[in-house]
Amino acid sequence: MVWEADNMTRSDYRSLCEGPSDNHCTVFNERQKKPKPIEVFVYIDPLCPNCWQLEAVMKKLTVEYGRYLTMRQIIVTERPIQPIQGKKLRGSDMRREEPHPFPSYKAAIAIKAAELQGKTYGRRFLQSLRRRLFLEDINVDSPDVLLECARSAKLDIGEFQKDIASHGPIKALQCDRRLMAEMDVHEFPTLVFFNIRDDKEGIKISGNYPYSVYVEILTEALGETPTPEAPPSLLDFMKRFEFVTTEELAIVYNMDEPDVIREMKKLKLKQLVDAVVAKSKTYWHYIGE
Question: What is the pTM of this model?
C-alpha cells in the first residue's frame, strides 16, 4: 500500500493543538452548521516546488468532493537540505526536487498573518508569494515583497502589518510544528485524512501521487464511495482560484492542454483572463471584476 494508518486519532490532534489557554491554536475553532465528514490536514512547506505541484490535485479534490471534506493547511518551515528520493508508484519514479534556497521562516509568519483575515485571503497571499518565488525568482523574505503580496491578495494592509508583528502568527506556526512532530511528518507535502464521525486512526500519505490515489484514500476514510460533482464553468473556476496553469485546468477538467488553451483564449478575448508565460509554462490570471 502507498499509504499508512497513523496511530494518532483526530481527538488526539485536538488535545495536542488546543493546549494551555495562553498558547491556544485556532485549528479547531471554526464551527460549521453541518460539519463535513472528512477533515484533511495538508502539511506543506510554502516554498517547496513539490508542494506547489500538488495544487492541481487539491483543486480537483475541492471541486469534485468539496461537500465531503475540509482541508486544513499546516505550514512547515523545516526542510531537508538534500533532495529526497521519492517512492515508486505504478511504474512512475517520482523524484523530489531540491527545495528553493531562500529561507522560509519570515514567509511562513506572513502566511499565518494573512490567514488571520480568512482562509480565502490566506490562499491568495500564498499564491501571490509563490508566483514571485517560482516564476520571478524574487526573495520573498523581503518585507517589501511580502507587502506587495499582501496588496495583491487584497488584504487589509493595516491589519496585516499589525498581525505580522504580533505573537499570533508565531503561536499558530508553533502549533503547526507540534502537529508535524506528533504525526512524524518528514516529507512535504503530506496529507492526513480523518473521518470526524468516528475516532479511528488517520490515513497518512506523503509525496505526490496521481489523483486517483487520493480519491481511493478519501473512499477508504469515508467508508463508502463518494459521488463526484461536475466542475463549474471555466470562468467560475477562474473567479475562485484566480491564477492557475494550463496543466492544472487540464487535470481538473479532464481535457487535453490544447483544448484548454483554446477555451481560455475565448475568455481572454472577452478580457476576463490574461495569459502569463514563464519558464515554459502558461499561467492564466483572472482579471474580470
Answer: 0.78
